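Lab meeting prep.
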Amino acid sequence: MQKTYTNVYVNLYQLGLSLEQWLISKGYKTQILTVGQYVVVQAKKEGILRTIFGANRAFTIRLSGGQGVLNVDVGMSDWLKAADVTEDVIAALVFTPLAFIEGIEEAYNLKIEEDIIKEIERLISLTNQKPLFQPQPFYQPMLYQQKICRACGYNNPINARFCMNCGSPL
């Protein structure tokens, strides 16, 4: 599943850490990787059967974005080895859509995907930061708050004693 959020100003790494803590609280083994413009959080259940059968698949959440945009990809992929991770590997990461996993596990996985998206949206609402240089609306002072110069017609601040344009006494 891919989802894009606009007008969102979050620290990707902090969002990833919060998401990782939430997954740990649900009983998952997790890892978080940051490479270039990406933050990847992976989560998998561990157990004796998974170890025996070499199940190396994990829920994978890839976060990217900037300039008020957050891109989220959620799906299944192989558990990544930190030593092998490069930005190209993360960018080309192949997600198996959860709908392709068959059987009873499919419904369970789709529910987890929905829960992950809901948690991301909850975290966004808690941590959404304003951009550092947010454009300010133009403020036009009202005319009664200004002194208009009789010589040149310039609008001066109310406390001005001389025109800021021509220097004439107000």
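Slide two material, second protein:
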Amino acid sequence: MNNEDLTYCEMIMMKELLSERGGIVSRDRLSIAAFGEVFSKHNRRIDVRISRLRKKLPLNLDGKSKIKSVSGEGYAYIDDDWLSQYLGEMS
């Protein structure tokens, strides 16, 4: 994947997710960054964009998406490098 494969909104959302690598980014924060406004919790615009973004990213070594949904909170970007570092710190 390269930047040409991503839409403008997807690039903005990736920037937000990567800025909190391993941490949770709220739907509201993604919404404001990508669209300049907060959508109601029933609006699926952010969820649809995240779904499309997931399809464009390679999977982690465990076969799972790098973008994790955190129920009631938002999304987190967790890649193999971050996961390895996190697990190493827990040892």
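Talking points for slide two:
The beta strands are 24-26, 67-70, 74-77.
The mean pLDDT is 85.
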